[in-house]
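Pilot study result, target chain (103 residues):
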Amino acid sequence: MTNIYVGNLSFRATEEDVRGAFEAHGEVSSVNIITDRETGRSRGFAFVEMPNSDEASTAIEAINGKEIAGRGVTVNEARPRTDRPRGGRPDDRRRSSYSRDQY
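Predicted structure:
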């Protein structure tokens, strides 16, 4: 299974738009357009899974730089997700849980 990143995706692009572009090059297992948790709007990128790695490579080469829903997209094999700190600003770790007003 090859996981493919699709960036610079139009906010109007639908799952069908993305699936159609990739199915022209092989079987597509899934399409996941990433949305904002609060608004539900597209964040401008998606992930596509293709079971055949040769078909996935062909799709990446053919679609990278081409338009989906009126906008040129960036397509490449997705990199594994790395762990990152959750929430807050980086300097929050240095702040004491006590405020000066308590003394």
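One observation from the pilot: The helical segments are 15-23, 53-63. A full batch analysis is planned for the follow-on phase.
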